[in-house]
Structures are given as structure tokens and as C-alpha cells.
Amino acid sequence: MSWSRCSYDIMVAGEFQAVVLAAGHGSRMTEVTAGRPKCLLPIANMPMIWYPLRMLEREGFQDAIVIVADNTKSEIQAALEKCNLSIRLDYAALPPGKEDWGTADSLQFINEKIKSDVVVVSSDFITDASLYPALELFRKNEAAVTMFFLKPAEVSAGDSLPTPGPKTKHKPERDLVGINADTSRLVLLASVSDFDETLPLSRGLLRKHPHLQLYSRLLDSHVYILRKWVCEFLVQERSLGTLKGELLPYIVRKQSSKPTQKVEDASTIRGNTKNDIFQFAKESTLVSKVLPISLSNDHWGDMKGTFQDDKIRCYAHIVEGTSFGMRVNTLQAYASINREILQIWEKVTGGNVLVRLHPGAEVKSTQVDDSTLVGEGTLLNEKTSFKSSTIGASCTVMSRTRISNCVIMNNVKVNEGCVLTNCILCDGVEVGANTELKDCLVGAKHTVGAGDKHNQEFLADEDVLMEI
């Protein structure tokens, strides 16, 4: 079924709720999250979470539930109120002390707010791809779950500059994903690390899905479309704490199982301690009446009904073409997206106006190139040079200083005579006069001594180092 843009917007607003996961503290990039929530890390002087929220706006969502940690709610809310978003945000703060809850735990926590099928989005996902094909795949197949993937060729590899800080070996997590090429059924989801040299596949699985394609390098966007009954099941099955690592592999495996007994009304079994997922997997009344008499089928070679009589069905959408997509969940990814964001700005924001030099900034320098951004209340003195850098709000850069390929967050002071190349400076940093930093990462509120020279180092106060 094809939809006009107007019909699509109505469908999105009426049938789906958006949930944005923004409570994570960035365990893989603690060097830059010690001073602020991960979802507020600046990218082109906009908070990271603004990008998935802007995507949801483009897709027709009018409301979103944003799950945050209790101790960061006010900071996140204040930051987003300055972003001129039209989407209405309902902030759900996790209980104090529960900041380490898994993603499935967080979804359980807001269960009373969930009134329809859900689109779960991570606060660190940036893309120009549309959700429309995935939502349509979900709807027409009455899916329990639909996952949203991008191919490796469509994930930017970044540029040749090293990631600021000490040299480290970046070993990305890899998933094994098995998809029926004919139907887009997702039939295998596991981590590569779960297997040694061989991957066992049952004959029954291969007979059922003879055109099975295996992938090991897809980007999982952490955009998950879930049926409402899946969220209800989560409330009862408390042992599943994470979506990616536990819930989704569990549901994918359950597709090949059959219910042990027929249950007429899922609402009557919530007290059942057995927590059989099939007790929750109820098709809509219309679908249950249409399928037995439908002549349509998604397979051949047997007498089984549509969807091979499976009550639980999972699907995967792989974005085709030249779409951009990246999860900014590592330091390497954060450095890379800041280098690339201006080139993809129009695509990932839907043509949102880019504020290159904030009207509240005081720019006395005559050497600020077109790929440099300057935030509100920042002073750039004369006799300074800026290339391909992002300077945050309320910063001061003194004379005779050169800055290139840097990300400088808020309230940073760079004294005179400094040379900064390919560095990330977190909030509240002060760099002493005549200092040279190359490929360095400076932690929040750290002071770099005057005349120092550092190369590929992480510079931070002792309390930040202890936290990391």
C-alpha cells in the first residue's frame, strides 16, 4: 500500500507514539560526558538530541516522550526549550538512583504513558533517511517488531584526522543479522561475539526461509518499531532489561515457536506468572478475520497460511541509496560527526537554517572561514585565525591564537599565543598563554598550563580521571 505525504502524516500522528531514549550517560565516551549529559553534547552548536527530535518532526510526529535521568531533566528541558522545536515533549524522569537502568527497563517504567504502537529512537542517532518504509513494512505485515538498519557503504567513514586523545584501537560491535530476502522477515539477531568460528542454522529455519541473507556489518540505528502488546509483555517479563541485547533477540527466536494454548483475551492474563509471550501477541480483530480467507501469501512451497501461520513476526528495513546515518555513541563517532556535519546539514535537518555566527557573538577576527561556527556570547579577538572549528557559547579567544579542526564547548577561555589543532575542549576549560595542543582531548573545567605542549593526550583534573 502506498501513501501520500498527507496520509502518511495522519497515519504517524494517529497510530504511533515516539519515545526518545536520553537517559544514557555515554559509557563509551566518558571523557566528554563528565561535564554534561551525553544527549546534550554539542554538534554544530546544537544539542545531540535535537537531531533525532528534528527527524521525528520531519516524519510527522507531533509529540514525543523523552526518557531522561532524574538529575539531568531540568538541564535537558532548558536546552531544548531554546531549540524552537514544534514537537511537544513529555519528559519522563527515571527514579533517582536508577540512571543505570537498561533500555527495556526504561520502557517498562513509562508503560502507563503508552497508548499505541511505539517508535523507539536513540538520542544519539543522526540520519537523513525516512522512517516511512519501515513504518509501512510494520503496518502491512502486522509485525511485532521492525528494526531499522543502514548498509556499511551508507555509513560515513569519517576523514583522515585522528580521534583526539591517546591512540586507542576502536573495535566496533558487530551483529549477525539474518533477513529473508523475499519478505524482509528478520529471522536471526545475535552478536558476532556469541559465536566462535561457526554459526549453527537449523534445517527447519532454512526450509522456512530458503532465501536467507546474512549480514555482519549493518548499522543498527537503534530505531525500533514495537507493537503495543510488546510493551505490555515487557511489564510482566522483568528479566529482560535491554531492548537490543535481550528483548529483540528473544522475540526474534520466538517467531519459530508455537503457542502452548489459545488465549482469547490478553488483558485477562496479566496476573499469570508464566508470562508466555503468546498470551500477549494478539492480532487485531480485523486482521484475525481477514487472514483465514485471504488469497495473498508471502511464501510458496507449502499449504500454510499467510505469514506461514506465525503469530509473532519480526521485520527489518535496510535503507537503500545514499542516505546518511550514524550513531554518535563513541568518542571516534563524536569527532567524526563534528567534522562532517556542515556537509550533511541540509539533509539531516530538512533544510533548517544554520546559524554560522550567532548574532550575540563578538567577532573581531578577520580570519574566520566559512566552515567555522561561533556560539552566543563568544568573543573572538583580533589577530586570531579559525578554520573548520565549532566554538560554543560564552567563550573567549585572545589574540595571536590559531585554532583549526577543533570542537570547543561552552565557557572556554583560550589565552593569547596558542595553537590548537584537531582538539576537543570540554566545558569550562582554560588554556594558558603560548600553549600548543595537537590531537588532544581536554576534560571539563581543566586548566592547561601556560607554555605547555601536548600531543595526542587526554588532559583532565584528577576527579574526572577517577570517574573515567
TrEMBL record:
GO molecular function, one term: guanyl-nucleotide exchange factor activity
Keyword vocabulary terms for this entry: Cytoplasm, Initiation factor, Protein biosynthesis
Domain of life, per lineage: Eukaryota
Domain Nucleotidyl transferase: start-end pairs: 18-149
InterPro entries (UniProt xref): eIF2B_gamma, LbH_EIF2B3/5, NTP_transferase_dom, Nucleotide-diphossugar_trans
Biological process, per Gene Ontology: cytoplasmic translational initiation
PANTHER family reported for this sequence: TRANSLATION INITIATION FACTOR EIF-2B SUBUNIT GAMMA (PTHR45989:SF1)
The family this protein is said to belong to: Belongs to the eIF-2B gamma/epsilon subunits family.
Biological role: Acts as a component of the translation initiation factor 2B (eIF2B) complex, which catalyzes the exchange of GDP for GTP on the eukaryotic initiation factor 2 (eIF2) complex gamma subunit. Its guanine nucleotide exchange factor activity is repressed when bound to eIF2 complex phosphorylated on the alpha subunit, thereby limiting the amount of methionyl-initiator methionine tRNA available to the ribosome and consequently global translation is repressed.
Subunit-structure text: Component of the translation initiation factor 2B (eIF2B) complex which is a heterodecamer of two sets of five different subunits: alpha, beta, gamma, delta and epsilon. Subunits alpha, beta and delta comprise a regulatory subcomplex and subunits epsilon and gamma comprise a catalytic subcomplex. Within the complex, the hexameric regulatory complex resides at the center, with the two heterodimeric catalytic subcomplexes bound on opposite sides.
This protein's name: Translation initiation factor eIF2B subunit gamma
Organism phylogeny: Eukaryota, Metazoa, Ecdysozoa, Arthropoda, Hexapoda
